[in-house]
Amino acid sequence: MTNDALVTFEGVVKRFGSFVAVQRMDFEIAKGEFLAIMGSSGCGKTTTLRMLAGLEAPSEGVIRLAGKPINDLPTWSRDTPMVWQSLALFPFLNVIENVEFALKMRGVGKAERRRRAEQWLERMQITEFAGRNISQLSGGQRQRVALARSLVVEPEILLLDEPLSALDAALKVRMQSVLKNLQRETGITFVYVTHSQSEAFSMADRVVIMSRGKIEQIGTPQEIYRTPRTRFVADFLGSSNIFTGKVAAAEGGIVTLNTPAGALSLASPDPSAHAVVGQTASLTVLDTKTNLALRSPSGRDLNAIPVRMIGEEFIGATATVYLETRDGQEIRIQKSHEELANLPLQIGQEFEAYWSYDDGHLVMEH
Amino acid sequence: MRKTLSLYGLTFSLPLLIWQLLFFVFPLVFLVALSFWTVKNFRMQVDFDSVNWVTMYGRSVFWKAYGTTFALAAAASVLVSALAFPCSYAISFKLSETARRWAVFLMVIPFFTSYLVRVYSWQIFLSDAGIINVMLGWIGLGPYALLNTVGATMIGYLTLTFPLVVLLQLFSLVFIDRTLIEAAHNLRCGRLRTVFAVIIPSARVGLVIAALFAFILSFGDFVSPIYLGGGDPTTLSILITDTTKSGQQWPRAAVIALTMIGTLLVVAFAAVRFAYKGRTK
Q1: 3-state secondary structure string, chain A?
Q2: CB atoms closer than 10 angstroms to residue A73
Q3: Quick one: closest CA in A to B201, which residue?
Q4: Residue among A27, A18, A86, A87 at smallest CA distance from A51
Q5: In whole angstroms, what is the distance from residue A265 CA to residue A143 CA?
Q6: Which of A13, B130, B215, B270 is the most exposed, having the fewest neighbouring CB atoms within 10 Å of its CB?
Q7: Mean pLDDT to the nearest integer, A209-229
Q8: CB distance A75–B185 less than 8 Å?
Q9: Does residue B281 have a pLDDT over 50?
Q10: In this complex, do A81 and B186 lie within 8 Å of one another by their Cβ atoms?
C-alpha cells in the first residue's frame, strides 16, 4: 500500500443472493486523483461506488478510507458524499436550503451555514437561483446545485454516479470541463462512474474498466487506449482493429500470429508478455494507426492485408472508412480528409491496409 | 387551449352530472332556502327571514357545541395522523412487497363491516360491565367509567378514520423517491432525522390530505359522540337532531348544517393550500 492511497479495496466481493455483482476486487484510489470507473450497465461499477459510499456493505473483503476500515460504518458516519444520476435534490427545499442541508446535519450554525452555502453557489455560478425551487431550474443548473450540495462540506472524496447522463451533448461537454476544473482546483479525489468512454477518457487521470463484476484493466487513458490488456478492453473501446490467431513465432522481439487474415507480426517491447508458440492471442492496432494504399506498400516491418471497401462515414474533420478482409472480417480506418484525398474511395474498391510492426499490440487470451 | 364538449364525453359524464345536480346541488340550494323559512305553531312556512341565523348565532349553546366539535375533530385528526404514521411508515419502508400487499388488504377489511356495527361492538368493550372492566376486575381494578366519555368518542373517531388515514398516508409514502432518503443519509442525516427532514416533507401532500379526511369525517360524525360519548358534550351533529326534534325547528337545523359545510370548506381549502405551499408547476 502506497502512502498516498486514500481508498483501498482489498479482496472486496459483493453478492446479491446468488448473483455476484463484484468479484474479488483489489485496487487503490490515490489522494487527489480523478478516477473513472467505466463499463457497460450491470458490470458492477455502481455497486462498487455504493460500497464506497456505505449504501451497500461488501460481502467479503475490506474497504479502507485513509487507512481505516469502513465496512461497518453507516453512510451517515462517513464523509463520502455522492452525486446521484437522478441528482436526488430535495424538491421541498429551495436551492440554498439544499446546499445547506449537509451543514445543518453537522450542526453548523445558521449564519455560518448560509455564508458557506453562498460561497459555493457563487463558485458554481448559481447565486441568482438561491431562492428558486428545484423544479424551476434547468438540467445544467440542477447539476451545479447537486455538486454544491455535496462539496459544501469540503470532503476528501466525492463520488459521482453518471451525473451527466441526463444532459444533452453540448451541456455534457461544458459540464465535463466544469468538473475537471473543480477537481483540479479543490484537489478533492473524484471517483466517477460512467458508461461513456468520452467522459471517462477526457476527465480522468486513471480509468478502471470493469466487466461482469471484474476489473479488466486499470491505467491512464493513454495506457488503456494504446495497450489494452485484454481482448474485452480492446473490443469495448472499439478504437482498434483486432486480429485473433495462434502464435506462430516469438523471437527477437517480434511476435507473429497466424490469423484468418494472414500472418501478422508485431514488435513486442515487453518481454514479460511471453507469448508461447501455439497459444491463442490477438493483435490490436488502433484504427488511426492503420493506413490505406492502392498497392502493397514497400518497406520493412509492415503488415499488409488486402481489403475491400464497404462504407464510409464522416464525423467533423475525420472520416471513418469501413473495409472487409478476404475472410470477411470488418476493419476500420480513421483518417483526416486530407490523408484520404488521394484515394479513390468507392464502395467495392480493393485496397491494401497496412501498419507498422511497432503499432501492433499483443493481447494474450486468458 | 379551450376544451369543447363532445357527444362522446357527454355520454359518460352526463349521468354523473345529473346525479350531482339532483342529490347535491339541489338539496344544498334547498338547505339554504330552508334556513330562511320560519316556524309558526310547529308548522314550517316558506319565508325569507334571517331570524334563524340571528337566533342560532346568538346562542351560547351553539357556539359551545361548535367549539367542542371543532376541537374534538382537530384532536382526532392530529391523534390519528400521529398514530397512523408509524404504521404506514413501517408498511412502506420495512415490509417486503408481498407483506405490504397483505397489509394494504388488512387495512381494507374494516370497511367490510358497517361503522355502526363497529361502534356498537366498542360498547361491549367499554361499558361498565364490559370486557375491559371485567378483565380489570380480575386484577382488582375498576370498574372505570369508560363509556360515555370524551375518550370513548375519540376511540370511535379512530375506528372511523384510522384505516383510511393509514391508506392515504401509505400512498404518499410508497411513492417517495428512495434515492432522496439515501441522499439524506449520505449527507450525514441519521435514520430518525431523515424521517423529519426528508420523509415527512416529501409526503406532505398525502399526510395533510389524510389528516383533512380525518377532520372531515370526525367533524360531521354523529354515531361516535352519541353512542360512545353519550351525547355529552354535545357536538353539532347531535345539536342538529335535538333542534329538529324540539318544535320542528328544521330551519334552525339548516343553519347549523350550513355552518358546518362552510367550516369544512374553509378547513379543506386551507389544508390543500398548506399541502401545496411552496410548490410551483
Answers
A1: CCCCEEEEEEEEEEEECCEEEEEEEEEEEECCCEEEEECCCCCCHHHHHHHHHCCCCCCEEEEEECCEECCCCCHHHCCCCEECCCCCCCCCCEHHHHHHHHHHHCCCCHHHHHHHHHHHHHHCCCHHHCCCEHHHCCHHHHHHHHHHHHHCCCCCEEEEECCCCCCCHHHHHHHHHHHHHHHHHHCCEEEEEECCHHHHHHHCCEEEEEECCEEEEEECHHHHHHCCCCHHHHHHHCCEEEEEEEEEEEECCEEEEEECCEEEEEECCCHHHCCCCCCEEEEEEECCCCEEECCCCCCCCEEEEEEEEEEEEEECCEEEEEEEECCCCEEEEEEEHHHHCCCCCCCCCEEEEEEEHHHCEEEECC
A2: 15
A3: A92
A4: A27
A5: 49
A6: B270
A7: 92
A8: yes
A9: no
A10: yes
Query: Given pLDDT bands bounded at 50, 70 and 90, which one contains residue B142?
Result: confident
Is B43 in a helix, a strand, or coil? strand
Q: What is the pTM of this model?
A: 0.83
Q: Do B189 and A105 touch (CB under 8 A)?
A: yes
Taking contacts as CB-CB distances below 8 angstroms, the residues of chain A near B191 are 76
For chain B, list the domains and their CATH numbers.
52-275 (1.10.3720.10)
Tell me the C-alpha to C-alpha distance, in Å, between residue B2 and each of A312, B19, B126.
Answer: 51, 26, 58
pLDDT digits (tens, 9 = 90+) for B80-97: 999 999 999 999 999 999
Residues in chain A: 366
Q: What average pLDDT does this structure show over B22-37? A: 94
How many angstroms separate the CA atoms of A56 and A33, rounded? 23
Residue A76 C-alpha from the chain's centroid: 29
Interface of A with B (CB under 8 A): 53-55, 74-77, 79-82, 84, 86, 88, 90-93, 101-102, 105-106, 133, 135-136, 149-150, 153
- For A206, phi then psi, to 5°, come to -135, 150
Among B186, B195, B276, B279, which would you mutate to test the A interface (most chain A Cβ atoms within 10 Å of its Cβ)? B186
Read off the pLDDT of residues A95-124 as tens digits, 9 standing for 90 and up.
999 999 999 999 999 999 999 999 999 999
Write the residue in B187, B197, B278 that is nearest to A81 by C-beta: B187
What's the start-to-end Cα distance of chain A, in Å? Answer: 27
Residue-level pLDDT at A366: 65
- Spell out the long-range contacts of B141-149 with Cβ–Cβ below 8 A and sequence spacing 24 or more: B147/B123, B147/B228, B147/B230, B148/B228, B148/B229, B148/B230, B148/B232, B149/B229, B149/B230
Note the pLDDT tens digit of each residue in A170-211.
Answer: 999 999 999 999 999 999 999 999 999 989 999 999 999 999
Predicted pLDDT of residue A125: 93
Beta-carbon-side half-sphere exposure of residue A258 (alpha carbons within 13 Å): 7
Of B23, B65, B38, B16, which is closest to residue B257 (Cα–Cα)? B65
Q: What is the mean pLDDT of chain A?
A: 90
In angstroms, the Cα distances linking A364 to A35, A51, A223, A279 are: 26, 32, 16, 8
A218, β-bridge pairs:
A208
What ipTM was reported for this prediction?
0.83
B193 touches chain A (CB under 8 A): yes
Range of lowest pLDDT (A245-254, B148-157, B222-231): A245-254
Domains in chain A, ordered, with CATH? 5-226 (3.40.50.300), 231-364 (2.40.50.100)
pLDDT of residue B136: 92
